[in-house]
Every structure is written in C-alpha cells, then in structure tokens.
Design brief:
The longest helix is centred in the first third of the chain and has 17 residues. By secondary structure, this protein is of the alpha/beta class. The chain has a 6-stranded mixed sheet with strand order 1-16-15-9-4-8. Strands 10-14-11-13-12 form a 5-stranded mixed sheet, sandwiched between helices. Strands 18-19-20-21-23 form a 5-stranded mixed beta barrel. The protein has 3 domains: 204 residues, no CATH class; 132 residues, 60s Ribosomal Protein L30, Chain: A; 172 residues, fumarase (Alpha-Beta Barrel). This is Fumarate hydratase class I. It catalyses: (S)-malate = fumarate + H2O. Catalyzes the reversible hydration of fumarate to (S)-malate.
Length: 547
C-alpha cells in the first residue's frame, strides 16, 4: 500500500517576494485563545483594503509589466507598429497614474481570490464587507458600471454599482489573510478557453502546435501584448480554468519547477518554446510584428486518466491585479508603479518619425472612403472630426428598427461609427476613459447595416470575421482598428466633446456624437475585402499605398 502523503496541487515552492505598501486603518487586534494568538479583523479593514486595491489597479500597473512594455522600444526586432503601440501604452499609463482617468474604459468585473488562515477571526460575512469596498471604489471614482442583472430570461438592467463581484474565499494557511484583487474587462475575460482533450495530445510537437494554434485564435481583440497562461491537466475542467486565470496574473509564479507526487508545476522550457512560437505568428502588438505576448506561463497539473483539460487565459495591456495581505504586522497592498513616466523615451524611435495619414472626418462619408481607398491595409491614420459611438445594445435596437422596415438612422449613414462605451467623465474633462471595445461582437450586424447604407466606416479593436471583409468588398466599406489599451490617453488628448444622440437611457451604451483630434487608427479591412489579419497574407508593417 502506498504511504499517505498530502501534497497541495498548487503548493508554492518559493516564498512570496512581492513588495507591499502599508494601508493605514484601525480595526485589528490580537486575541489570546489558549496557547494560540488569534488575529481579529473588523469589517472596516476588509472594506478599506478592497477600496484601496480597486482604486490602485484601475490606475496603476506593476513595475515589471511596464519594464516589459518599455523593452519593446529597445528591441531591434520589434516592428514599427509594435513600438507605436508600446509608446501609446506607456503614454496611457502615465496619464492614468494621475488617479483621475482609469487606464481602460472597461473598468471590469471585480474579482477577489482570498485565503484566510485558521488563526484569523472575522465576523464571517467577509464577502459582504469586501463588496462594500468595491462599491465605494466604483461609485466614488471615475469607473464604469458594467454588470448586468437579469430581470427575466431576456431582459436585463445595469446594476449601477458594478456589483455583484466574483469573490472566492478559501480556508488555508495559519495567521495571515492573503488576497489577489483583479479587475477583468470583457476583452480579456472573453478570451479564456477550455479544451477537453485526451492523452493523445501529450507529445512535444503535437501539444506545442495545438497550444500555439489556439493562442493565435485569441487574436487582438483582448489588447495584446498578452501575459498568456496555459494549464495542461487538472482534476476537473473548472480547476484548470481557475488555475489559468491565476497564472495569467503571475499568481502561480512560485510553483515548483518539476513534477511528482501529485503537485502542479511550471515548465519553464515549454514556456520559452510557446513564447518563441507566438513571436513568429506576425500578429504582434495588435498591428503586426513580434510582441503578441510579453511572456507565457505553462502549468502542468495532475489529471484523471481519461481526461486532459487544457485551459488558456490572458491578461491584457490593462494588466490589473494586486496582491494584498492582513497579518499581525498590519494591512498591506502590493506596491504598484506610481511613476510610469520614467519609462517613456525622451524622443520617439526613428521608425515612428514618419507621420500618420491625416483623415478629415468633417466631410462626406464618400470623400472619406475615397481617401481611404488610396492606402493599403496596415496604414497608420490620424483621425480628426466627428464620430458616432454605438455598441452592443444600440446595435440591437437599430436592428429591430431595420427589421420592422424603418430606415437606417442618418447618423450611421453620415459618419464613421466607433464601437465604444466610456467610463464616467471626471469634473472638468470632456470625456472619461474612452478606448475601443471588441469589434467582433458587432460582426453579425455588419452585412445588414452596410446594405442599408450604414456602418460603412467602422472603428474598434481586434479582428473581424470573414463575413465582415466580404461585406466591405460588396458595399465599399472599411474597418479601422484603434489601439486597444490607451483609453485614458484617448480621453485626455484626443476626445474633445461628447453629445448624446439617442438612447440616453442606456448610459455608457447610448448613441453618442464625439469630436476627436489626431485619433490614432489603422486600416484593417479595406473596400476590396483585404484583411490585415487574414492568415493567408503577410501583415503590412509600414505605411504604404496600395500598389
């Protein structure tokens, strides 16, 4: 009989090396209980820690993440578009760090993963107190409410607080209460995938090819460069997905680096193989190049002999997470970078010196399309003038009108449409953080809308389906890609005015008219149906005219 030995699947092999800052708060005491020293934690401590965490991660990034972004500018193998995106992301981080505009307009679903030690005493209503801190952050700061509550099977309403949150509380450890706080926007959250495979996949080339192929299908709509996590195995499918999310936040970096006895471990060699292959895809940091991923985490877990779950998850350009802890010494939160401006270069790299093609949006749509027709996919643009903003709910309402025989609204016939939804507008600002949303969610509307004379120039982030390229070829349309990630930068520097056109009751999903200046974009799909991201063509990495 094999001797009993308990081994946690995700047991850490190395101590936590995170740097923390102290949170000043009262409400903790040390109680004597027999030979034990019990750490008593009052509700306000949990509320304060959660508020501080979600304020920080909405505006600040980890220093290591910013170092990786800055390193792109010094890499001679990086494309000019890699460097352009990296520069915009650093500018965005610098603006967001001021604490007014959040780094991303999608301020995300609030997620807390926590482990409470056996010598930590609370009133037992921890999720409520943590939720109160989330509520205070989202209602008092310039963040966006994105949580939809079902009223019936087909009707929903925005909760107006960004609650409920996803809060997972585990009993583990001794005399500390440990936390991981995450704000997960829909772009990267929608790119978590589970594949139920079998042991037939467990050969070096087959497994590597499978992972790289599935990673490439994530595309650019979740705002690369990514921190990619891959989990191979797991006692259940849901365990694999949970581990992938934690690994994408670098929360499992301290795992052992070899297997045995039922433990999960990191495979550093396989991580390097996957990373190298992703850098050969040509997708790059959104518009072609090398930097599809900053790094890769590969976690190998034990599994049932008849099942091989494989989970993929990413953390995006808005790499929003922080650790926290409550110990006998006090309340602490991970120290994030408060001076990201130090990573900005004094001057732009030489290959970014060439100006973008200026597009005047304050003319007819036909003239704008004629100007775009003179340039190839991959061309970098600078947009100035009027855009109409409409996204999921507005598109659904307009489709109902078209289905009932009503005409396409003039605003979608006369102006380019920007798929986006802003965060709250700070006092004295024309706009809250206002980056693009994922274009693919509007793909099903494009053929009908373009046939009715609308959406002939679309602006958003990420790749589109082949049906969109076909519709653009048939109807003379264009899809322009904006950079996913620099929402604070766009609000601060590019968006000059916002007016509500229709459906004001939808809040951040209302139809808006905005005035922009030097708004950065790229031609992704042109009126000939050429698609920058199509697999059967090489991405164009420099500005150029169609031959």
């Amino acid at each position: 009989m094999t001797e009993f030995r308990y081994t946690p699947i995700l047991g850490a092999a190395e101590p936590d090396s995170t740097e923390y800052r102290r949170i000043d708060t009262s409400g903790m005491d040390i109680l004597g209980w027999g030979p034990r020293r019990i750490l008593s934690v009052e509700p306000n401590v949990l509320t304060t820690l959660a508020f501080e965490a979600f304020r920080d991660i909405s505006h600040l990034l980890r220093t290591k993440h910013l170092e990786q972004v800055a390193a792109i500018l010094d890499d001679p193998e990086a494309s000019s578009n890699d460097k352009f995106v990296a520069t915009e992301l650093l500018r965005n981080a610098n603006i967001a760090a001021a604490g007014v505009l959040p780094m991303c307009q999608d301020t995300g679903t609030a997620i807390i993963h926590a482990q409470r030690g056996r010598h930590v005493l609370t009133d037992g209503d921890d999720a409520r107190h943590l939720s109160r801190g989330i509520y205070e952050a989202y209602t008092h700061l310039n963040l966006r409410y994105s949580q939809m509550a079902p009223v019936s099977m087909f009707d929903e309403r925005n909760t107006g607080t960004n609650l409920p949150a996803q809060i997972e509380l585990h009993a583990e450890g001794d005399d500390s209460y440990d936390f991981l706080f995450m704000a997960k926007g829909c772009g990267s959250a929608n790119k978590s995938f589970l594949f139920q495979q079998t042991a037939a996949l467990l050969s070096p080339k087959t497994l590597l090819d499978f992972i790289v192929d599935k990673a490439s299908e994530i595309g650019t709509s979740a705002c690369p460069p990514y921190h990619l996590a891959v989990v191979i195995g797991g006692p259940t499918a849901e365990y694999a997905l949970r581990a992938a999310k934690l690994a994408s936040a670098h929360h499992l970096d301290n795992l052992a680096q070899h297997g045995g006895d039922g433990i999960g471990y990191r495979d550093l060699d396989f991580e390097e193989q996957v990373l190298n292959r992703t850098r050969q895809l040509g997708i790059g940091a959104q518009f072609g190049g090398k930097y599809f991923c900053h790094d890769v985490r590969v976690i190998r877990l034990p599994r049932h002999g008849g099942s091989l779950p494989i989970a993929l998850a990413v953390s995006c350009a808005a790499d929003r997470q922080a650790r926290g802890k409550i110990t006998h010494e006090g309340v602490f939160l991970e120290q994030l970078e408060r001076d990201p401006g130090r990573f900005l270069p004094d001057t732009l790299p030489d290959d970014l010196a060439e100006p973008a093609v200026a597009i005047d949006l304050n003319t007819t749509l036909d003239r704008i399309r004629a100007q775009l027709s003179g340039h190839s996919v991959g061309t970098r643009l600078s947009l100035t003038g009027t855009l109409v903003v409409a996204r999921d709910l507005a598109h659904a309402k307009i489709k109902v009108r078209l289905d009932e025989g009503e005409p396409m609204p003039d605003y979608l016939r006369d102006h380019p449409v920007y798929y986006a939804g802003p965060a709250k507008t700070p006092s004295g600002y024309p706009s809250g953080s206002f980056g693009p949303t994922t274009a693919g969610r509007m793909d099903s509307y494009v053929e009908q809308f373009q046939a009715a004379g609308g959406s002939l120039i679309m602006l958003a982030k990420g790749n589109r389906t082949p049906a969109v390229a076909r519709s653009c070829r048939v109807n003379g349309g264009f899809y322009l890609g904006s950079i996913g990630g620099p929402a604070a930068r766009l609000a601060h520097d590019c968006i000059k005015r916002i007016d509500v056109l229709e459906y004001g009751e939808l809040g951040m999903e209302a139809v808006l008219r905005i005035e922009v200046e030097n708004f950065p974009a790229f031609i992704v799909i042109d009126d000939q149906g050429n698609d920058f991201y199509a697999r059967d063509q090489q991405p164009l990495l420099t500005i150029g005219r169609r031959p």
